[in-house]
Protein 1
Amino acid sequence: MRTENLEYTSTRKKGERIPLLIDCDPGIDDAMALMVARASEGFELKGITSVSGNLDIETTTKNIELFAKVLKLNAVLASGASEPLVKGKFSAEEVHGSDGLGGASSLFGVSLSGDRVQQNAVDTMRKLLLEEERKTAIVAIGPLTNIALLLKIYPEVKEKIRVISIMGGSLEGGNVTPLSEFNFYVDPEAASIVFQSGVPLILSGLHMTVDATITEENLEEIRNHSGVLGVPAAEMLKTYPGTAHPLHDPCAVLALSHPEIFTYEDLTVHIDTREGDSQGMSYKDERPWVKKETNCRVLLKIHQEKFRRLLVDTLAF
Ligand code: RIB
Ligand code: CA
């Protein structure tokens, strides 16, 4: 079913602030996703958890603490899985730099003590989900290792999850191989567990995020922002103008805060867990004679100009 505008998987009343957890591997675009979430009135950000992916768990954990301080977030912080469930570790340091933030970490002007971060992201997510009366949305923008462990170890949390908005996979093309996108390539078994879990999913895949780009003019606007983030964020984003580096992860947040900028289709999506070029490939099953429930709301297109405006305006605080 191809629909022009995305509705929430469960509708959000006007002015309602929905409880939110973000599981991430910052990572430059993860950092932008945290900023977009912070700027949105639509969320109560209850927890931020780190997973190894773009960089090792030590670096991604440092970066969730850094942005919790920079953005003055009082979310609970916890570090998660240091490697994928089955496959070997695989990083994207060449894209995000050794500090995970394009070399700009020192410009954000915060010192890190590490004392705010709890161990064991899975237990922390379980606690936050069960103690919250309402259903909680999860934004998952790194390899899905923590999320898969959560759903397997504590299946009772499924009924407390409103939706999992995922950045990963692709209906066409890949970035690690011609067929496979980074988050699902790193931990295909975790992605397969999540897509078979029965939990409502929204997917921001490469086929759509490829258009989530910024221009040099956008970068200049960000740099000239009056807020404290302008200069450091612009330094972090210095390689992003153009088409080589889309800002993938903010799409998974905007899917919840600004669904009107996307189109979508409800599909049945499977994950290939075999090693090699197809490792982590996400593919749809549209065979009409195979009776099956769809398992995912796949975002098809993003309104590029609205995305750019939202991103630039996000940093004006
Ligand atoms: O393929 C893009 C995804 O991989 C993004 O989440 C980026 O941060 C990296 O983790
Ligand atoms: Ca990421």
Protein 2
Amino acid sequence: MTDFDYDLFTIGAGSGGVRASRLAASYGAKVGVAEEYRVGGTCVIRGCVPKKFLVYASEYGHSFNDAKGYGWSADNVSFDWSKLIQNKDDEIDRLNGIYIRNLKNAGADIFQSRAVLKDNHTVHLAAENRDVTAEKILIATGGAPWTDESVPGHDLGITSNEAFHLDTLPKHVIVAGGGYIAIEFACIFRGLGCEVCLVYRGEDILRYFDTDVSVQVHAEMKRQGIRIITQSVFEKIEKLDGDVKRAHLTNGTHIDADLIFWAVGRKAATAGMGLEKAGVELDKSGAVVVDEFSKSSVDNIFAVGDVTNRVNLTPVAIREGAAFAETEFNNNSTKMDYTFIPKAVFSQPPVGTVGYAEHEARQKFDNVDIYKTNFRAMKNMLTGSEERVLMKLVVDGDTDRVLGCHIVGAEAAEMIQAIAIAVKAGVTKSQFDETVALHPTIAEELVTMREKFQPKY
Ligand code: NDP
């Protein structure tokens, strides 16, 4: 018998928090969960899921055009932003309901409230103005987009949080950033017919990815008419007449738009939660410092998901939450395995990638072989689209193991999920070669790359 109200109290009902809570409850723990916004968290409510709906919507913008090559007439198509947003919201409401039901069915108590730590066993529920106690506390509050407040007029821009609820589709959008969210939303808005300009501080967008991926995505975005300005940031933003905002850039130019969209990263949501008071160590970005079992510097306080700023992806948060519940409530010591996590950027065309980028592999392995191909997919022979596909394998020249696979092209995200199984299991390049191609597909090119790429130095 515990002297606490709960065996586990979880703060934050997103992907990681919900998974951990449900699993812990299924192992017999008495679980409470506090959520200040909506159960489902960033992924379901204002992240991956609604974003993917916008991606689907925007892909039709290209498809109507492409269909002409296949004999279809699609001349007077129109698009209704409000209808898309309403349909998207209905689906998000449905998913939100499922998440709430699943938590309740597992036996967890849900509190619609901000929760703040008073000490390492006491949680204050602001909405109810009362305290609850718990033997173990799980911080799963995720992250939030930030804007650069040093830029005068920064508050004239929005973040991804607001992008899902715009009243109207903007005509001209400026996106700041060169990461996942910037690239995905730039493509979404372009597919829906907006004029889009992306402003990125570095040289290569998606700089954490393989350089060939970065170059290919850049080229494809330009081909669609997205203007990309590199090595520049906002100097100031000012409001002109009507809805128009003017972004002054550090390269001395300015651009006008009716929507300015900050996509310059996300920060762990730890502010004002009483974590420091409870003795929980935070890193300099504000993320909770945890060990490999997601335990914080305080013995009974744990954290999973984006709030720990490890690998900020939904399936990772889910796995971390599950590993925590296994370890702490099922007597089954479990660590999250961070190797060979597949990743996708839902650009248009999308990116699918797993394992080492070429530059990472060259730092770690003595002999690295590269196989790559770049081609126009068969479908586009009739559409007239110049969109190209990139496929690249990074191979350990000593062992023949495939270290990385990188794809930019239609269905890249779908392909990489399957390829990741083989790559994680240690597949060799010879085994790729021994696999019979499936014709005619884009994916068949993955098993027909025979020539090592010879760089021209
Ligand atoms: P990212 O870290 O991917 O990108 C942030 C971008 O903002 C980078 O290009 C960065 O530049 C730039 N930046 C940072 N600070 C500044 C600044 N002060 N001024 C101008 N530019 C700046 O963050 P996102 O917000 O795009 O996404 C957050 C996280 O969410 C991702 O890391 C990912 O884990 C997750 N996510 C995953 C998705 C998916 O799986 N498809 C989709 C969306 C989000 P630089 O490159 O030079 O550092």
Protein 3
Amino acid sequence: MKVLIVGSGGREHAIAASVSKSSRVDKIYCAPGNAGIGMIAQCVPIGAMEFDKIVTFAKENEIDLTIVAMDDPLVGGLVDELEKEGLRAFGPRKNAAILEGSKAFSKDLMKKYHIPTAAYETFDSPDAALAYLETARFPTVLKADGLALGKGVLICENLEEARQGVKTIMLDKQFGSAGSRLVIEEFMTGREVSVLSYVDGKTIKTMTSAQDHKRAGDGDTGLNTGGMGTFSPSPFYTKEVDAFCRKHIYQATVDAMAAEGREFKGIIFFGLMLTPEGPRVLEYNARFGDPEAQVVLPRMKNDIIEVMEACIDGKLDTIDFSFEDNAAVCVVLASEGYPVSYEKGFVIEGLEKFEGQKSYYCFHAGTKKTDQGIVTNGGRVLGITAKGKDLKEARANAYEAAGWINFKNKYMRRDIGRAIDEA
Ligand code: AMP
Ligand code: GLY
């Protein structure tokens, strides 16, 4: 069969690598893709938000399955557009992708269906938000309602910071229309865990756990980024935590969406915080995480196409998931200055060292093929994933392999997986 993947980052490269292992797939396309994806798929110069062009391409090339991997096209309704033309697509429809697309929606859903999460209030006007803040407890958390590249969350230590935050989000519109509404949320403490799951509308099956490192600097300092590195599994995701989440969060979310007439098919990514009072939902995403996919997918033994088709057909209950009994760590190699400003266009050396490797992966994020070779083309450039028999071995392997690559202004966090030592 022919598969089209929509997206261009490290997550899409990891998905493409899994798809390329499926015995059922003859040809992979990616729109728009990147230099690494181009080694296993045919990249087509169509942007992820160019819905008409994507639908036309899928029709003309008789694509059997389109995997929509990114939040923007999912929330914008690309799956609906493909289905209208009789094309098969993996990912939630627009009315279900709102689970990620609106924080106010997801908070209201959790409240209505008693799914554990932080207490919150939603505001459509800055004046009402400011009045509420007068009596709020600090720290407090301000969230732009809509999609903001994972950056629309401000943790405010005091009233003054919170006032400034309301201005940034609602008046200055730093996150665009995402900030027309504001959610103000209780501040929680605890370890964060990401659990990604496949959903077929009724049945949910979770994958192995992972943990991201969202801040740019060592010791979780600096600005929030898309993610600077991950490890899987999380040693803090114990059997007890899993049992609690199964009972109160996972199926409850799928059932709640169905009850609202918003049947969810695709990936639900649960961002969880393990608070002293028990696990709470921090956020939902309607897609694989980036770079969570880069540590979870290489450990999954199932044929990804079989699993995705089962989700579309409502037959996920017939599939058992199987993961390798090992660990994986991903270290992101970024351009110095990310996430604010950085230079691009530097030649990347050492990529050939990953050829033929079984336990080492070099997932491309922001890269481009030029006459000079493959060059940096984004803030996050590569995700270096390594497996090991346990987390410590995987971490040592990932940092060793991160050293195989060189490019000007290469930057990485040195402490990905430090939490492993505290487990
Ligand atoms: P989100 O995009 O909602 O996952 O938020 C981004 C990051 O902000 C999370 O990964 C947490 O580290 C932090 N965060 C979000 N909500 C809260 C909260 N209620 N309490 C504490 N930290 C939070
Ligand atoms: N790594 C976090 C995300 O993909 O949202």
Protein 4
Amino acid sequence: MAILTILEYPDPRLSRVAQPVTAFDERLRTLVRDMSETMYAAAGVGLAAVQVDVLERVVVMDLSEEKNELRVFINPGIEWASAELESCEEGCLSVPGIYELVQRPAQVRIRAQDLQGARFELACTGTLAVCVQHEIDHLDGTVFVEHLSLLKQARVRAKLRKRRSRR
Ligand code: GNR
Ligand code: NI
């Protein structure tokens, strides 16, 4: 097992687009294991492979209180999104200490594959809907900050810069 390094915004590597997984093999299982361990160690509810500098469409997530309900989404995609939008305060392991309201479709239906390559669909509402959209964004090179106004984005970058200069 291994804890991977999480890239931090505005690292340009967070803007790259991940490619579909084609081999459901031992290498993929190892990546998912390392990503899960990294997510739990960082106390996050989700992690996308792009955040650990791996350009593959892999997401791990655990929204449970007890941290014992790991979900794995390989090649996830949004099948349907509601017209109704909802605002939720989001954070990101790649943007430490920043929490901002982001408006997204309130409900989505996604399709994905599991570790064996079997396809499944999932209807998502609430926190699950927010998180799957946040993670699929990462696979397409988008960090939640990029949903904010340009003024707010500049403020977030200034805050991160200031904070980093102090450590
Ligand atoms: O840990 C996380 N919490 C969170 C809170 C609100 C909306 C989205 C998230 S995802 C984030 C982990 C992360 O950065 N995943 O990419
Ligand atoms: Ni994130």
